[in-house]
């Protein structure tokens, strides 16, 4: 089974050719340099950059897989009738997939149009994938192959720039939301705290790097536990850091490192405790974390330990696949096709797409 996938929900333009769970070729263009001066993603700039790069990225992924973009005969002038797919183009792909949400509307639309065009060119069905489901399934990749199959049922922690959610996943395509953030996403909190400290963007890797330099003495920030439920809240924690910096202005490198370490610990402890609580409440023996923040080493350590204390084992994706990529979208499409569930193959763009189970 061979799939072409396109990812454009935020600030990465990515394409991948996946064959039977093996990454044959992938191409990615990151817009980080473009957004860095604004300390965050500017939606209009993101859409324009996707538009500029999408053809190069898709072509590079295809060429990397030895697939030439088929060039059809130019229709006679004035001929507006749709032309059929040349026979040799058919059967190259079982599906063309793209992230249909959640994400930035203009950005997703660029991926949608590119995927639709590719689906036409290759005569393959178009599949719209939930980007967050992709973040979960990215946990299956090891050295370019989706060999590390998730064990179900599991508690899925999705922690990224725009989302912090806990789901019960009963199997591929069987999801139930257990909790979500009531305000900021964990990644957003990392980015905002980094900005307060005058660090670079994206903030997560900067905070993690600086935290390593912290000594033993550091402030203690609150762990927002919200009454033992499975929802999250990170805006109070971010405000606590802002107040701390008001009381301790102009921090030097050592003080900044201490703040980074204390903040990171508060986030990691909270996420790890909630993941373990989800395992306990739902009687789950497995947990998995995906999304950009799941690249954080302290979070991995704390979550592995907290889940183990509930008799559950936690898995994470390879760090490269925590951030946005097209391989995870291709894999989600392949798992869906393998399931035999015809699903509704929804292909409309939905910037607020929620996690939902596949149709039977
Ligand atoms: N090592 C790290 N520690 C903590 N946070 C990190 C780390 N690496 C990346 N992040 C954070 O992850 C976020 C980006 O993750 P990702 O690319 O999955 O989010 P997104 O695609 O923008 O949002 P979403 O997936 O919700 O649509 C940023 O907020 C970034 O600061
Ligand atoms: Mg993402």
Helix content: 25-40%
The CATH superfamily of the largest domain is ATPase, nucleotide binding domain
The third-level CATH topology of the largest domain is Nucleotidyltransferase, domain 5
What fraction of the residues are assigned to beta strands by DSSP? 15-25%
Adjacency order of strands in the biggest sheet: 3-2-1-4-5
Radius of gyration: 21 Å
Which CATH class of the largest domain? Answer: Alpha Beta
Secondary structure tally: strands: 10
| Average pLDDT, all residues | 94
Task: Please give a structural write-up.
With 360 residues, this protein is α/β, with parallel strands linked by helices. The protein folds into two domains: 2-141 and 323-338, ATPase, nucleotide binding domain (Nucleotidyltransferase, domain 5); 154-316, ATPase, nucleotide binding domain (Nucleotidyltransferase, domain 5, 2-Layer Sandwich), CATH 3.30.420.40. It contains ten helices and ten strands. The protein has helices spanning 32-35, 43-64, 105-122, 131-137, 186-196, 203-211, 235-247, 253-282, 297-308, 327-338, and strands spanning 2-7, 12-19, 22-30, 95-101, 126-130, 154-159, 164-171, 174-180, 286-290, 313-316. Strands 3-2-1-4-5 form a five-stranded mixed beta sheet, with helices on both faces. A five-stranded mixed beta sheet has the order 8-7-6-9-10, sandwiched between helices. Helix 6 packs across helix 8 and helix 8 packs parallel to helix 9. The longest helix has 30 residues, at 253-282. The mean pLDDT is 94. Bound molecules: adenosine-5'-triphosphate and magnesium ion (MG). Magnesium ion binds next to helix 4.
């Amino acid at each position: 089974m061979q799939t072409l996938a396109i990812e454009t929900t935020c600030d990465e333009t990515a394409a991948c050719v996946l064959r039977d769970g093996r990454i044959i070729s992938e191409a990615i263009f990151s817009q980080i340099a473009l957004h860095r001066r604004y300390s965050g993603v500017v939606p209009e700039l993101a859409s324009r950059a996707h538009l500029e790069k999408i053809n190069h990225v898709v072509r590079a992924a295809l060429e990397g897989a030895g697939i030439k973009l088929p060039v059809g005969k130019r229709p006679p002038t004035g001929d507006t009738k749709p032309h059929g797919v040349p026979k040799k183009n058919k059967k190259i792909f079982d599906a063309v997939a793209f992230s249909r949400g959640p994400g930035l509307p203009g950005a997703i639309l660029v991926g949608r149009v590119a995927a639709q065009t590719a689906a036409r060119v290759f005569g393959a069905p178009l599949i719209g994938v939930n980007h967050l489901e992709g973040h979960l399934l990215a946990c299956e990749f090891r050295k370019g192959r989706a060999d590390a199959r998730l064990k179900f049922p599991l508690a899925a922690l999705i922690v990224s720039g725009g989302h912090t959610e806990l789901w019960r996943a009963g199997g591929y395509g069987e999801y139930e939301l257990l909790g979500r953030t009531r305000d900021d996403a964990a990644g957003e909190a990392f980015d905002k705290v980094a900005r307060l400290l005058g660090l670079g963007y994206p903030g997560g890797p900067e905070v993690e790097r600086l935290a390593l330099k912290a000594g033993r003495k550091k402030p203690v920030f609150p762990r927002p536990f919200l009454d033992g439920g499975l929802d999250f809240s990170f805006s109070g924690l971010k405000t606590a850091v802002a107040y701390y910096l008001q009381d301790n202005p102009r921090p030097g490198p050592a003080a900044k490192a201490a703040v980074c370490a204390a903040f990171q610990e508060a986030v990691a402890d909270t996420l790890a405790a909630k993941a373990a609580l989800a395992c306990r409440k739902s009687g789950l023996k497995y947990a998995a974390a995906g999304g950009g923040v799941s690249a954080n080493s302290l979070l991995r350590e704390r979550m592995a330990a907290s889940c183990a204390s509930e008799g559950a084992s936690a898995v994470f994706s390879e760090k490269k696949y925590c951030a946005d990529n097209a391989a995870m979208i291709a894999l989600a499409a392949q798992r869906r096709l393998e399931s035999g569930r015809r699903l509704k193959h929804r292909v409309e763009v939905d910037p607020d797409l929620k996690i939902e189970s596949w149709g039977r």
